[in-house]
Amino acid sequence: GAGVSQSPSNKVTEKGKDVELRCDPISGHTALYWYRQSLGQGLEFLIYFQGNSAPDKSGLPSDRFSAERTGGSVSTLTIQRTQQEDSAVYLCASSLGPFSYNEQFFGPGTRLTVL
Amino acid sequence: GDSVTQMEGPVTLSEEAFLTINCTYTATGYPSLFWYVQYPGEGLQLLLKATKADDKGSNKGFEATYRKETTSFHLEKGSVQVSDSAVYFCALSFGGGSTLGRLYFGRGTQLTVWP
Q: Measured between CB atoms, which of A35, A91, A99 is closest to B101?
């Protein structure tokens, strides 16, 4: 079946603009995660959804970052007033559940460049 | 805090050479341990995992043993191939608590195998 998909694959924006990144998880996967991959920080956790709720949003770096999930499916990560340090690859992953034995399947990522 | 440290790369080997990539962790509980791989132009994918002490994860000729006494999970392969060229990430997650399911990643090790 289809894997995790993300859109857009690339996004170039100007500093100060808002951006929305989309994640379509594997059908039936209740857990959804956002991570960020950057040269300076490696792979960092951002937020975790179980269904439409976000029990762990401790990785969001500032209040400019927010995320939502609707219908237990699609998730959107929004970055307001983008800064150059937001440039990174944003990865989405989904799994059947949140437990460590549930494999997380990753999407191809969205490469965000803030000029 | 909880973290993963893995050997810095890049690692360059000739085909059929023996591979070891070191990984150690710091954790307050009893995590599950993972190796993820990112092939050029592809998304992150799970290579192998171990969920308790002394477990050995294996896949595609790669192996890693969960060593609680040394808090390590070193990745090994007896004979690497050109197709193993990729970035390898060590990671951990917990099966419960406030950080349920989230992955803590090491910085990644770039492996290049020459024919």
A: A99
Which among B32, B42, B98 has the least Cβ separation from residue A100?
B32
Distances in Å between the Cα of B111 and the Cα atoms of A46, B22, B87, B101 are 27, 13, 6, 27
User: Is A104 an 8 Å CB contact of chain B?
Assistant: yes
d(CA A32, CA A105): 9
pLDDT in tens, chain A (115 residues): 589 999 999 999 999 999 999 999 999 999 999 999 998 778 999 999 999 999 889 999 999 999 999 998 999 999 999 999 999 999 999 998 877 778 899 999 999 999 9
Q: Which one of A96, A104, A110, A111 makes the best mutation probe of the B interface by having the most chain B beta carbons within 10 Å?
A: A104
CA distance B112 to B110: 7
